[in-house]
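Now for our target.
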Amino acid sequence: MKAMERMICLVDGEHYLPVTKAAVETLDSMEHIDVKALIFIGGTEKLRTSSPDEYSEMMERPVYFGEDHDRIPYELIGKLIRKYCADTVMDLSDEPVLDYSKRFRIASVVLGEGAVYRGPDFEFQPLTEYDVLEKPSLKILGTGKRIGKTAVSAYAARLIHERRYNPCVVAMGRGGPEEPEIVRGDEIDITPEYLMEQSDRGVHAASDHWEDALMSRILTVGCRRCGGGMAGDVFITNMKRGAELANTLDADFIILEGSGAAIPPVKSMRHIVLVGANQPIMNIKNFLGPFRIKLADLVILTMCEEPMASDMKVREIVEFIGDINPDAEVIATVFRPKPLGDIAGKNVLFATTAPESVQGLLVEHLESEYGCRVVGTTPHLSNRPLLQKDIERYINEADVMLTELKAAAVDVATRDALEAGLEVVYCDNIPVVRDGSQDELDDAIIDVVEMAINDFNTRKTP
């Protein structure tokens, strides 16, 4: 038997009241739908009364109005979802009361309450969240791809490990394994030759969980996923099995790592959200960017420097985050490369996914901080043909291939370098606090960890 669906309807004054009433009664006549209440969201052309009591009497069910009839009552929508334990918000409004941006904002509110937002030809489903973890946990997710999520995840994992919380990372990626894969970064020596062996066996040895294991030297579990919806759900993934596997491992704290803009479909206690300052401001402020930001206990804003983002843009993003999620701490950062091996006095070919526009900054940092000479750079780790061309151009001048562990780092960059007799050194990316102390970022991450542990202990208390 199908469960009863508790529904709230959004209505407006641009529709003739008997027409709206007929639509609501059509919904309520369905055996599996129970229309609990209506929310008036604006429009006055055909509105005969602005009295909630009169409107409720006419519609024969509770009708709620916002304080300003000309503005969408977003907060009221969330409040009434909670009041009626609504499963679905049905949109019976239209232009001119609602446009695309307003509908996405409503979607952010509704999805944030765990309900379905539905209209005549659209439906937004809340995120899938399997409640399977048996240990304290946090989730690291992003508002897009190539904003440094894995670098921040590795940094956070390393910090959490150093503070002796004994973490395990469960990561999902587009190139992840068919079955969840354990990588003992805390036990094995992950050398270029070892990664080549894995690659030759058909393993995507530059997948995120390998990067986490190499950079942070901790236990990781690798999973796969395909597809990513607008709110962050995925089409297929084995991450639920990966999380269940993590329950059985010798770890006391679990970090769930997202993939691009896709969000791990496993419930966690707390959330760290990455926002790339290089992203179009429209994508951050509109669509379902606000939905992701509202999930955050901590927002780490990355790439906060020219030419990727002006100071004015960074301030605008920080202010926007503060407006929609005032409880979340916001920390602005930039990335700086950190070789895992000694490159002093050596000629270096540097392979990265960073855009060409910032390569000058990164080269200057490498040469000044690590005493090397960068003879060539390539931003094409995620484009195999262009990466191959760049390597051919510079490889005879280099002693060392310095590469991030991403995309084609193993099967192209590492392979070509080893065949040419070059040393291969992998490179971490460190999120550096832009204006302030690095302790500010470290303390904020540990605060989220402590909140997650407290949530878990409170939940486990009878």
The first strand starts at residue 5 and ends at 11. Residues 355 and 416 are 22 Å apart (CA to CA).
